[in-house]
Amino acid sequence: PAGPSRNTAPRAQPHMTQRRTLVLAVAPDDATPDTHLMAGPWCFHGREDAFPDWDTRFTFGPDPYATGDEVAAAIDEANSYAISRIPDLGLRLGAHHGADLPRDFWDLTLFPWLTLCCQMLHERQRRVQDMIRLWGNEELDVPLLPGDCAFSFEDSHQFILAGAQDQLFNWWVFSRILEPQLPAAWRAVHADPVTRHSGAPAESGLRGLARRLLYALPFPRIKGFSTLQSLAFSMALLGPRTCEDRTIPLAQLKGRMPVWRFEPDGIILPSIPRALCQQRLPRTVRQRRPRTRIVSVGSYHDDAYRMRVALDRAAGARLVFIQHGGNYGHIRESAVVPYYEYRQHAFVTWGWTSHAPFRGNYVPLPHGQLDRIKDSHVDRTGALVLVGAEMSLLSYRLDSRPQALQWLDYRRDKARFLAALPDHVRTSALYRPYFQTMSGLDDAPWVLRRFADVGRCEGSLDEHMLGCRLLVLDHHGTTLELAMAANTPTVLFWNPEHWRVGRETAAALAELAAVGIHHATPDAAAAHICRIWPDVQGWWQSEPVQQARRNWCAQYAMTTPGSINGIWLDALRGL
After folding, report:
1. What is the value of pTM for the model shown?
2. Which residues of 125-149 are buried (b: 16+ CB within 10 A; e: fewer)?
């Protein structure tokens, strides 16, 4: 079979007398490359040890989007469909609550969950169409889950964890998409119906009360800012506002609609989080004099909090979001943020003022998370720390990151990098895996099993970052901005076709590449580290490297001498 590391279609297989089985979920114990085709590498999640070399022996369906432009088109179609469905879903939920609430309320309430659902459906449909195109004439048995399965999710966060990233739920989704267009040569083998209700207990007691009170502030508790800062900044937001409301209506962002080959409501309606149905809502909302409030990133997953913010918006409030990590301002294709955060009255950035092609009122300010660690690096451990990214094989949003088969290449690049290091450097290396995910590749076990002289990086990542000899990142994200602000010696490498960035970031990365910070391959990064390892600080503190770092920080990780409080108070009073 064709190697799964290629983002191309597998070679067509010759006709076989024995019917093969197309696996949509978990690889069975008796699976072999001759008897089973795999819809994707997620079929081996949790089973990698049971199938040695599975990633090179089995045939997989291809990744659905060949280029970044195809990803951008998919985002536009999925989000446009989500936007088009909000009025009807709002009427349904409004009738359930006995409430007559405006479009602004439902746009804010429904979009974060609904767009992830529609992006998931777009990606899964493309996978089904590719599998039909490749194998539609071969006689296959296809185990399917029946339509009368029952799945439900407590909130939007559980929809991601126990839905979009879960093999069982995705088996049901693939079944619903595939059944109406099952090729004549394929034989459906229906499994028994399943029931799964996913949820997490609500935070209660004093901790839950404190969290709700802090969320209720005009400036809620934001990571990097103290409670005292939240209170002081909330005072600056009190009182009505007279400035123009710069919110972009969500309907203006609607574009091309997708063509569905199944009934999407058969998946969307049963997947509505219970929290959206259970939260108490007023029958109507009265308009008030305009006020401004900051919205915590927790609104993505905390449905009750998001609905309270949406009620404020429906009453005339202007909403301001604050950048809470990396990728903002960088990625070329962005699935949710421009439609949810950028379009609001203002969006506070870590320095950048443009993220083409996305519209927004961008306000650059020195963030507390960066301010607390600025220029604080001191080598205390002599370690090289390699930090990994999330490797979810079942995509739950479309943006500029590797697709399922590309994650296999991403993981192999870790091994290429570590193998290319000299022995005396590799013995100083620690590997920091990402948090375990519902459909992720094996991370630390896979890496550390191959390199017995590499240790596992445990405990606070910030402490390791601030005290290591050299930080190595194989992806862009929050740690990159923190490291640059802290003045931590850093080397970067990633495949630019898998981690696509916009033109502003591409220009900034070119400046980093010119001084040896950024590399396009793991081998080039390892060769550079071999050269600088005897005197990492000498290289890092050289004027060309420091100037490139300062330029990056000014754009993506800005800090300022002294206190940031006055800067923030002045900015908040003007919003």
Report:
1. 0.94
2. bbbbbbbbebbeebbbebbbbeeeb
